[in-house]
Structure formats: structure tokens, C-alpha cells
Specification:
By secondary structure, the chain is an alpha/beta fold. It has seven helices and eight strands, in the order βαβαβββαβαβαβαα. A five-stranded mixed barrel has the order 3-7-6-4-8. The longest helix has 14 residues. The chain is globular, with a radius of gyration of 16 Å. About 2% of the residues have low confidence.
């Protein structure tokens, strides 16, 4: 009698404690396979170290990897609570294409109706993006920026072929800078959206095809 191989686990990486809290509050179960939520710490170097260390665990050798959390929207008209599904993440050494983008957009639209879902390149940064730098990054074709997604996916790819993706919630945007008092409301909105979307990651994980070695 043959034994089915154990399903590959899912590693969800976020930088901040508040992001991990949102994900935990949104966990309704139903993953159907092992899921690890990893808090990497802020910045690309912290993300690289944490993800590399996590994937060295034999239990996570074949894990699919999804980067999530908050981000800075770059395009005019973006609002806190909007969602960004990366088609690719960009880093100084190039870019990492993402898997299952259309599936994620479909599931996110269903999970948080009324929220705008943007797709396009997600660029990495080593600091919080503010002011005129937004328009400079937008001119490269990127639609959003954060400090960890690109490093997370680059590190994941360096540990073997696997499905990768990045989904971010806009916490500030050109007309909604975090430095303004009024954006506290935007932070709450982004937290609530992040809390609502964990089941979409499970659905992505169930449906995306693992690359054959």
C-alpha cells in the first residue's frame, strides 16, 4: 500500500509583530497542510537572514514562500487598505517572478470585496519610502515598495526551486503619508485588511503547482 508524500509546507514571511498579529487574528484554520508564519524583522538583511535560516530546516526544504505585510503605494490614487499583488519583486541583483498572481487577485477580490487590488512590480528598499522618492520609483514601473519582499523571495529562490509570491497591503500612499496624523486611520484600515486575507494564502498554496526537480 503506497504512502502519499507529505504536502509541502507554506512559509509566510512578515517583518513586524503587528503584521504577524493581524495574520494570527485572521487564522480560521483550514490550511490543510503545515503553515509557518515567520517574523523576519525589518529590512532586507534581516529578511534574508531569517528566511535563509528558516529554509535550512529540513521540514521546510520544499516550502512555498509568500511575503506579506504592509507597503508604501507609489501611484497617485492609491489608498490605505488597497492590496498589491506582485507580478515580480525587484532587488539590486535583478528581479524574482511571482507565481499564481491571477489566482491571488481572484481570491483577494472575493475575500475583501470593495478593496482595490493592484498588480505590478513590487520594488525593494532599504528604508521607508517617502516624499519625492515615490515618484522616482514609480517612474521605474514599480507600483509599490517595501523593505522585505524582494529579499525574502530572492533568498527563497537561492534555497531551491519553489513557488513564491508577495501580497502587500498599502499603509500609506502619495496622498496619505504616514507622517500625517490623519493616516492613523489608514493604518487601522490596513491592519483590518491584512487580518482578512490569510485564507487567500491557503488557497494559493493549495492550487499553485510546485516546480518539478
Amino acid at each position: 500500500m503506497s504512502t502519499r508524500p507529505a504536502p509541502a509546507p507554506l512559509l509566510i514571511a512578515c517583518a513586524l509583530g503587528i503584521e504577524r498579529l493581524a495574520l494570527r487574528l485572521g487564522d480560521r484554520g483550514g490550511a490543510g497542510r503545515p503553515v509557518v508564519v515567520l517574523r523576519t524583522g525589518m529590512g532586507p538583511r534581516a529578511a534574508e537572514r531569517a528566511v535563509t535560516r528558516a529554509l535550512a530546516d529540513p521540514a521546510l526544504t520544499d516550502a512555498a514562500v509568500l511575503a506579506t505585510g504592509f507597503c508604501a503605494g507609489l501611484a497617485p490614487g492609491m489608498h490605505p487598505g488597497d492590496l498589491v499583488v506582485a507580478e515580480e519583486t525587484r532587488h539590486p541583483d535583478g528581479s524574482t517572478p511571482c507565481d499564481g498572481t491571477e489566482l491571488l487577485v481572484k481570491e483577494l477580490t472575493r475575500a475583501v470585496p470593495g478593496r482595490t487590488v493592484h498588480t505590478g512590480p513590487l520594488t525593494g528598499a532599504d528604508h521607508v519610502v517617502r516624499g519625492p522618492e515615490r515618484s522616482e520609483l514609480l517612474a521605474t514601473g514599480a507600483i509599490a515598495a517595501d523593505m522585505e519582499s524582494a529579499a525574502t523571495l530572492l533568498s527563497a529562490g537561492g534555497k531551491g526551486a519553489r513557488p513564491v509570491a508577495a501580497v502587500r497591503v498599502v499603509v500609506d500612499a502619495p496622498e496619505h503619508e504616514l507622517v500625517r496624523i490623519g493616516t492613523v486611520r489608514g493604518g487601522i484600515s490596513a491592519f483590518r485588511v491584512l487580518r482578512s486575507i490569510l485564507p487567500t494564502f491557503y488557497e494559493w498554496h493549495r492550487n499553485v503547482l510546485l516546480p518539478r526537480r
